[in-house]
Amino acid sequence: xxxxxxxxxxxxxxxxxxxxxxxxxxxxxxxxxxxxxxxxxxxxxxxxxxxxxxxxxxxxxxxxxxxxxxxxxxxxxxxxxxxxxxxxxxxxxxxxxxxxxxxxxxxxxxxxxxxxxxxxxxxxxxxxxxxxxxxxxxxxxxxxxxxxxxxxxxxxxxxxxxxxxxxxxxxxxxxxxxxx
Length: 180
Prior knowledge:
- This protein is an alpha+beta fold.
- Helix content is 48%, strand content 22%.
- The chain has a five-stranded mixed sheet with strand order 1-2-3-4-5.
- The relative contact order is 0.12.
């Protein structure tokens, strides 16, 4: 009888261990599920508060240029809220060429609407805010017409670093964004 009782006790202990393991796993799963429902971790909240500041603590300079033709206005904005760094040499070269191409376009063409805006965001490090969520090192340009997003174009940083490409990219971007 003792051997039968020992087997029964061993079975009960194994069964109890299995039940405890199952309960522990359910608690762990529940905590993972509940934490997944939260909007952001403390680290991400801290990073979002750096909006307009680089991840290394420098303020990002917002740059804006406006063009008027007839009764239409086009505003080009390098956004400090959507960028994670100031313009480096390559982004500045592209930006200057982009403005030059806009001037050429506006000399020859009319704008499609009265109030247009191009917002430029520069995601270089992908460590804070908007750039962190995208996790792509790129320059992003969005055309707004009368407050509505109309067209969007983006390209990788590697494309504008090439001295032979950035002028063509700037010209193409103006045509893509501003042609009707």
